[in-house]
Known about the structure:
Radius of gyration: 23 Å
Number of strands: 17
Oligomer: single chain
Strand content: 15-25%
Structural class: alpha+beta
Number of helices: 13
Low-confidence stretches: 26-51, 160-171
Order of helices and strands: HEEEEEEEHEHHEHEHEEEHHEEHHEHHEH
Largest sheet: 7 strands, mixed
Mean pLDDT: 78
Amino acid sequence: MNDEWEEYEEKLREYKLEHGLDPNAPLDIEVNVQQSGERNSNAGMGDAVATFKGGTMAIDLGTVNIRIAHSFSTDKKPHVVVDRQGGRSTPNYILMPEGEDVVLGRLAHGKEHQNQNVLKPRLLLSSPDENNDEKEKINKAVRHVIYDAAKNALEQTLGATRGGAFSGAAASKPLFSIDANSQPNTFEAQPIYTYPPPSASSTETSSYLQHYQSAVSSLSSPSHISNFISEPIAALRGAKLYSLLPSLKGQDDEYVIVMDVGGKSTSISLVQPKTEEIKYSTTISHISGQTLIDACVTNLIKSFYSLSSPSELNDTMALQRLYDASSSAIMELSTKTRAEIDIPYLTVDEQMKPKHLKMGLSRKVVEAEMNTLISKEMLQSITQPAEELSMSFPTPTNLPSLVTSLFMKLFETTNVNPFSVNGILVVGGGARSPIVIDGITKGVSALVGDQFVHEKLVVPEGELVEELVVLGAAASSDL
């Protein structure tokens, strides 16, 4: 027990030093570890009982990943909490088989293309109102992923080690409480949830928020208030926190465009920084991290199987392996110009001999395949032109022309002069790819010129590009 306490104190000291705090000063965290051989039935999270006192916890429920960040009043900046595998985000997938244990995170993500029952909580929240049974299923899925991610944040923050599997029943118990001392394993902290910006149909965002509020209501005690912040506003606050937009002077006529390239879609929002008012926002699915992965998988299927698309492959296990390998390849291509893909025993030939996939893939090949996918999708929608695109330009045939049309539609709708915009802030996991950033740069340059892009386009470096939203939310102490 003494060894565990010494380890905890050492981790706490490291935390203070990392965040510029006095390592000898008391921190507003209280830990009460019970030394008992029996599982505490009130805790729901193993033998240790702990409380997290004070501060703000931000929960960014993305389409592909969920991120958690927290901060105390004494912190200079909030920080992202790593998950049990050391990752700074956790796949936001859940599998809830009837009568079986809930499968979360990476395990559920690994079955996405094998099991049609794998759910994506954020997409569930965007679905239209269903019957009460379906609605409770959605709420249960959302509670599960948030509870598990926040529980992990509690464990990681306090440096306490807990045993025991995730308890599905515990997800219906309060996680946030005004008085953490009376609620073991709870946060006496302010939860802040991010949500997508309003699109052309404002009712969609309203419905999403209603679903989300209903889903997380049981995670807080009745007297505890949960706050919600729009993702582009959180990104803007994060940019201010990290001084990424030095041209802002706090004037009424300033504008920032926030482009959030997510895992499944991209949103573009025009924000007035002083009032934090969203003047315009739209979301499109043709640009995302998934677009790149789909392009990679499509190329592999063409080369290896001589098929034209993933939908023609009937081997779900092979398809899952192709998507897993492609996801890793896209990550590798964010820092290299070429990635090697090696999938042994992917299938068998007519003589039942194993066939292995081993090939290289360059950025240029993925970019060309992605532009082909975009062109096909745009041609399919010609009979019903997308509301998000400008009618002043031809139908987009690649990423740059799609970006040009999206930005032109923004300026046409808002009557804002492009040259009065103080900055274009690009965030999201998809923005880690040089292919995406190059397409955005070319698309905006075609509209306003290279000099404007050089001066106004802001892409946070490293992990900050996909963590700025949750960090900006965690820094929001006065909503």
